User: What shape does this take?
Amino acid sequence: MARVVSGIRPTGKLHLGNYFGAVKSFLKMQEEHECFFFIADIHSLTTHPTPQDLHNNVHQVLAEHLAMGIDVDKCAMFIQSDVPAISELYTYMNMNAYIGELERSVTYKEKKNSQPKNINAGLLTYPVLMAVDILVHHGDFVPVGKDQQQHLEMTRTFANRFNHMYGTDYFKEPQAYSNTGELVKVPGLTGQGKMSKSSGDADTIVFDEEESVIRKKIMRAKTDAGPTEPGQKKSEELQNLFDIMELVSDASTIAHFDDLHQNATIRYGDLKKQLADDVVNFVAPIRERIVHFKNDKEALAKAAKIGAEKANESAVKTLKEVREIIGFKKFY
Ligand code: AMP
Assistant: This one.
């Protein structure tokens, strides 16, 4: 069975874009492959979170993923820092990563510009840790967005370099996992394209948020001045709302508002109210489960423990083999 490795960034609460763009594919992959999904808490240290924020964020995403249907009996969902072998392998792999190539990483260059006061060594060697996340489990496939293609390429470089250096074929090259056509890009509410935390709070529909807040955000979503004549093309802002409807509303509801728009008799207030109802109905049961899991310490502990056991079993085996290949021999 193919092994899939994917990271989860512990940065705040999940929104509709995360669900349709990532979590849904996790749910499918856990049925079909041997999956390692890790909450990347070591990676997140590059942003210097307080201990409380770090823990709260990990707690949040763990509860959210369980609430959304990640099944710890079907996959290994683990917290990166629960697997010390990752940090050890990271140390070894850093010796074979060259400063020049790391400096050429697009994400490093971006971070250098966006956070000039915190260009730490962890940012520079971020691709090494990413490579280790994959290689430590001998991952075959990694679901990667466009911005991470280069990191996957670097993972292959590091794997091959290790093999070449030690005259072995120990690490294999991981491939990009193709979610052909399954993943949708969820637009945001502020009319700026993809739903994203970085576009501000008003842009996102967050699962773990009060119903009243969700309604308010949708009622304030950006639209246009309204069609002035029948058959007019939808503006981007309006199309965004219809695209979100595609995800949460009945086909008949969408057709109804489509007709009203075609006839130029649509009232955006009605459309938004309907969309708010449908979003709230979609979000409510998941939100209830999130609240449940967040408070269920026993379930969280059990899930984290099962994940850690599975991940450690795989990672410790790799590390033992790597140590032998490198030439660490015990004298005792
Ligand atoms: P982020 O919240 O940026 O850490 O994203 C986590 C995952 O959710 C990534 O795999 C993204 O590709 C996915 N994602 C985030 N926002 C969207 C969106 N608006 N539409 C589709 N996928 C998204």
